[in-house]
Design a protein that fits this description.
288 residues; alpha/beta; Rossmann fold; seven-stranded mixed sheet; two-stranded antiparallel ribbon; 13 strands; globular; disordered N terminus
Length: 288
């Protein structure tokens, strides 16, 4: 990945940056492969054809909370191949998408050209977003599977703050931190993992295929991920100078994190009837 942010109190050392870069490099190779599969969308997970026909790809959670984006300058961090970015552009936002996978950025640009939607896409490490994007935004948007790929969530929060105009806001949605602590065993959920992951010691995952249900095998199967407690996410945003406007917990999730989850409608999943209710996802708005 690219260079680190300018030195500030609490920033990672050059040594830890080098370690993170090695993890990022492995993850980027994995995401390059995933993108090539996702853009074909043989499983229909991403509903690419429906998007091309004019359908909005936002899930009900963010669709109901994002508000009017018309005419607003919006930065979509870790945008993958741009489906949500372009859906937000259809809603009237002036969009810039950033992702560390060059394959994803090429796919996003091709998709934008195919459907005739104006958008800017930039390739690079999210930690380098202020230097790469070189402007401030009314909205920073980050949803579904983002910060778990980052070793330092406080650093991410400072990047968000640097990208926002005064009065601008972050909209964020992702799985609830509780989800990554659990595994399903013998038909029940059990705690198997610690509640936070050290930056230098991420969890290591080996997945032969991607998460969409497509059967194509991955050559780069090993990925590195980090679990961040809710206190680290919220605390990082507050320390970066943002004001929390709302924090919502939801009993649904846009993917089947556990085999026991059942369809909840609108492309969402929930725990089955009779199981104690648990929060599966979170969303928040924080203003500079």
């Amino acid at each position: 990945m690219a260079t680190s942010l300018p030195s500030t109190a609490g920033s990672p050392s050059r040594c830890s940056d080098a370690v993170s870069d090695a993890f990022f490099s492995a993850n980027r190779q994995n995401w390059d492969e995933r993108t090539a599969i996702h853009r074909q969308d043989a499983s229909g997970f991403y509903r690419v054809q429906a998007f091309k026909a004019g359908e909005d790809t936002l899930y009900p959670i963010e669709a109901g909370e994002i508000g009017d984006v018309s005419g607003r300058r919006l930065a979509h961090l870790q945008c993958h191949f741009g489906l949500d970015t372009l859906s937000l552009a259809r809603r009237g936002a002036i969009v810039t998408g950033l992702d560390f996978s060059p394959v994803a950025i090429d796919a996003a640009r091709a998709l934008a050209a195919e459907v005739g939607i104006a958008a800017t896409f930039v390739c690079g490490n999210v930690y380098d977003a202020p230097q790469l994007l070189r402007q401030r935004f009314d909205i920073v948007y980050a949803t579904w599977g983002t910060i778990g790929w980052l070793p330092d969530v406080g650093r991410w929060a400072r990047v968000v703050a640097a990208l926002l105009e005064p009065g601008g806001h972050l909209y964020f949605a992702d799985h609830h931190p509780l989800v990554t602590l659990l595994e399903q065993e013998d038909g029940r959920l059990v705690f198997r993992y610690g509640w936070r992951t050290p930056a230098s010691a991420p969890s290591v995952n080996e997945n032969p295929t991607t998460y969409t249900g497509d059967t194509q095998r991955l050559a780069t199967r090993r990925t590195y991920e980090w679990d961040h407690p809710l206190s680290s996410i919220i605390g990082g945003l507050i320390e970066a100078g943002l004001k929390l406007e709302f924090l919502h917990e939801h009993e649904v999730l846009p993917w089947r994190a556990f085999p026991m989850l059942v369809e909840a409608g609108d492309r969402l999943y929930r725990l089955p009837d009779g199981h104690p209710a648990l929060p599966l996802s979170i969303s928040l708005k924080a203003t500079k």
